[in-house]
Structure formats: structure tokens, C-alpha cells
Design brief:
The protein is mainly beta and 312 residues long. The chain has 2 domains: 129 residues, Cathepsin D, subunit A, domain 1 (Beta Barrel), CATH 2.40.70; 143 residues, Cathepsin D, subunit A, domain 1, CATH 2.40.70. The protein is built from 2 helices and 25 strands. The chain is globular.
Length: 312
């Protein structure tokens, strides 16, 4: 949703990662605004620049230009939408024989043809969350690298490993704000910390909400308001100190974006439904998000699994 590092040298006794260095595949990523970008080979050609968007509920997106250049053949259509459920449209599907990132080759990838935002610079496509279903995916923001590994995460009593669910193929965790639990998408395309506007009256605010910009998704444009919280936000063992949050007017879930993630290394285990969070400090302090220049910068449409609402 757009309202829209090197692994840390820590020893985890109860959250063991059953993978050896030989099982790891590492590649650097470039962080543009909030979003990681990597170099990808498509059917042996490239490299091409792809963003990594955990808020996209499909394996991949490719731009129309890339699909045409590579002669990718249409195989069907997919319904595209956003969590508001108020708008959708059909996008062409193509089959990619081989897609390679970090030295790992994914075969027979289904990709939707969609023009990704160029606001962060050239982008030939998007790697979605479910592409990495069979791998441990680590996005190490502090070290600027993506790591793919074999193995599993295990639950941890210290709160550094938290469960997530993915009902629409995007990861949703629970934020605790005061005495309330707020579900939120862990969204590598998201810029800050957002909660549904319906929660605004239930939270303790340090000041009156203010307009911080405008956003756009497939269902239309909207005004973005936000406010400083007078209470902390907790994610497992981590506390985000009285952050500025955005109130999304139509989405039913919140959003954890780049202002939070860039302080962390996060590892997703889709098979176990667990997310490990690594940071040097258990207390995070977020800068206030900066207004974006245009509606196109503040919103994004993500293809969904057929018949389901999209990521964010």
C-alpha cells in the first residue's frame, strides 16, 4: 500500500534458522524511497530492474514494454483490486519460463502485465510475496541485501518472531496500540505506518489529524490524513515510540511500510507463517513521513489472486 542490512550478528537460541551458509543466496538491493529493487534475469535475458513488493498478492508483475520485448504470450487474465474491495479490473497474464534473482531460478512463473509506477526510477516489473513461498526470504534493510535460504523459523518466546497470516497472499501481522489489536500488512512498498480511518476515534492522539497528501489506488483517489499518537505501537518484542500514523479512509487493515522496515532485517517463512524481526534496539523511533509530490506517488494498484482483493 502506498499512502502509500549483512544479517545482524545475533545469536538466537530459541529461534534457530535451519540453514547453512551454503544454502544461502544473497544479492544487494537498492532502496529507492521505501522500496527495495533488485536485478533480475527473465528467460535468460537482462538484467532487468524489479521492485520487491510484499503487498502484491501474485508471483510477479511485468511491464507491458518488457512483455512485448520478450515476446511473452498471454495465457489468461487476473482480477486486480485493492483491500477496499470497491474497484477492480482485469489484467493479462503471461507465463515466464525462467525468472532468476540472487542466483535462484524460479520456473514457470505466472506474471500479470501491468505498468508499475516509475516514481522511484525505472522499474521493469515487480516480484510479489508468493514468488518466495518455498524459501526463507530475508530483506536486510540495514545491510541492503536480499537473502534466500532453505530452512524454517521456529517460534521464539522473546517476541522477536511473530506469526503472520496471508489470507490474500500478502503478510498480515497484529499491531498492538494501547489496548487494541490492529491487523496490518507488512508492505515493502508502503512508506510509513498506517491504520484504518475507522480506528481514529479509538486511539489516543497527541494532536489533531492533519492532511499530509493524497493517494490513489484502483478504486480512486483519496485524501491522506495523519496524526502523532500519544501511545506506543508494539510488534512482538519491538516498540515504536509514539509514531506518526496515517489514517487510510477505505482500507480495512493497517500498513507497516518503509519508515519502519528500513530499521530492520525481516525474515519471512511462508510455510510456517512466521516473521523474524532483527534490530539493534527494541525501541524504534520513526521520522515523520514527508508529503509526496503527486497522487501517483502515494498509491499503487496490486493484482490479486483471481477473485480476491489485492494487496494494498
Amino acid at each position: 500500500m502506498t499512502l502509500r542490512g549483512t544479517l545482524l550478528c545475533l545469536v538466537w537460541e530459541t529461534a534457530a534458522l535451519a540453514a547453512s551458509p551454503a544454502d544461502e543466496h544473497v544479492t544487494p538491493f537498492e532502496l529507492r524511497r521505501a522500496m527495495p529493487f533488485v536485478q533480475v534475469l527473465v528467460d535468460g535475458k537482462g538484467p532487468f530492474t524489479f521492485g520487491i513488493d510484499t503487498g502484491t498478492g501474485t508471483q510477479a508483475l511485468v511491464s507491458p514494454a518488457l512483455a512485448e520485448t520478450l515476446g511473452l504470450v498471454k495465457t489468461g487474465e487476473v482480477e486486480a483490486g485493492d483491500p477496499s474491495g470497491r474497484g477492480s479490473r482485469k489484467l493479462p497474464l503471461v507465463k515466464v519460463g525462467r525468472l532468476s534473482v540472487a542466483g535462484v531460478e524460479f520456473r514457470d512463473v505466472t506474471a500479470a502485465v501491468y505498468e508499475p509506477s516509475q516514481a522511484e526510477g525505472r522499474c521493469d516489473g515487480i516480484l510479489g510475496f508468493v514468488l518466495f513461498r518455498d524459501w526463507l526470504l530475508t530483506l536486510d534493510y540495514r545491510g541492503g541485501q536480499l537473502v534466500l535460504a532453505r530452512g524454517r523459523l521456529a517460534a521464539s518466546p522473546d517476541g522477536t518472531v511473530v506469526p503472520f497470516r496471508a489470507p490474500n497472499d500478502v503478510p498480515i501481522i497484529d499491531l498492538v496500540i494501547g489496548g487494541q489489536t490492529v491487523p496490518a500488512i507488512v508492505d515493502t512498498r508502503g512508506s510509513g505506518l498506517a491504520v484504518p480511518a475507522s480506528r481514529e476515534g479509538q486511539l489516543k492522539l497527541a494532536g489533531e489529524p492533519v492532511v499530509v497528501g493524497r493517494g490513489r489506488t484502483i478504486s480512486g483517489e483519496f485524501e491522506i490524513r495523519g496524526a502523532q499518537l500519544a501511545e506506543d505501537v508494539r510488534i512482538g518484542a519491538y516498540r515504536i515510540q509514539t509514531p506518526f500514523v496515517v489514517f487510510h479512509p477505505s482500507f480495512p487493515v493497517g500498513n507497516v511500510g518503509g519508515l519502519v522496515l528500513r530499521q530492520l532485517a525481516v525474515t519471512f517463512d511462508q510455510r510456517s507463517g512466521l516473521l523474524r524481526i532483527d534490530a539493534p534496539d527494541r525501541t524504534l523511533v520513526l521520522p515523520r513521513p514527508q508529503p509526496r509530490a503527486s497522487p501517483a506517488d502515494a498509491g499503487v494498484t496490486r493484482p490479486a489472486a483471481p477473485g480476491l482483493p489485492g494487496g494494498s
